[in-house]
Amino acid sequence: KAKVSGTGYHVYDDVDHDDGAARLRTMDELQSAIAEGQFVLHYQPKVDLDTGAVHSVEALTRWEHPTRGLLHPGDFIDLVEDAGLMRAMTRVVLAIALDQAARWRADGHPVSIAVNLSASSLVDEGLPDEVFTMLSVRGVPATDLQLEITEDFLMADRDRARKILSRLRTGGIRISIDDYGTGYSSLSYLRDLPVDELKLDRSFVQTMTDDDHAAALVASTISLAHSLGLRMVAEGVETLGAYTELTRLGCDEAQGYFISKPLPAARFESWLRRQPV
Ligand code: C2E
Ligand code: CA
Ligand code: CA
Ligand code: CA
């Protein structure tokens, strides 16, 4: 039976024939996706609820697969992780986002871009220096970059996490806790961690208009964030009702289909031009 040397598993094992072959094909495809620029970013605006202005967007990765069409992260993120390619993908995504930030800045309408980081890419102590180099070669200020991390990353290795975050944040990059409220959220880590913003998970936002408990949780989370000096962002805002209620509760920013879905850069630019100023 044939074996692939060095990978530690047998491609043509009787039991594993399909899985192994498919796995290798996927690895191969992911590697060419990275090498051939098949990853693209779509941008979803975050609206400032005090002013209605859009100063920042979240970058969401899409894979323009040569045969399967446009894939969302749910279709490939786990594969990237399993293939050990998250580090490489993160670099690619950061480069695309920072190139875009440089273009928007050159065009005279700077927009800050939030990039999602996986837990695995943030145990990587080389990341802060690399990110600062990527910023400076493009002449993009650190304030044009935001990083979104989930709570699972914080649990992995808290001291290391805090060190990496501090270096990023001291350099001017803003840090958000993503999917806030779904993970292990303790008051002490919020006090200790170098973060700027909480992004309330969409499950709370989506239920707040017809569930009193959810509404109370949202209200108290906003107060908590503000009392700790953190900005509060709501994601998954799909209705006028939620948008209005979040504004009333003093939430700082909102993001969701009610405002716009994630769009390719050019379509985001025309969306932005259509907004009342
Ligand atoms: P996330 O960071 O929580 O991003 C928000 C997700 O909700 C996005 O899904 C977005 O398209 C979707 N969304 C936006 N507005 C609404 C809304 O009003 N209603 C609903 N139901 N959904 C909304 P997407 O683009 O499929 O991304 C899924 C997840 O993949 C992201 O969740 C993020 O955790 C991860 N991801 C995306 N890009 C990257 C990346 O470059 N690197 C890493 N490590 N993860 C990424
Ligand atoms: Ca996010
Ligand atoms: Ca989220
Ligand atoms: Ca505010």
From TrEMBL:
Domain EAL: 23-276
Organism the protein comes from: Lapillicoccus jejuensis
Domain of life: Bacteria
Protein name: Diguanylate cyclase (GGDEF)-like protein
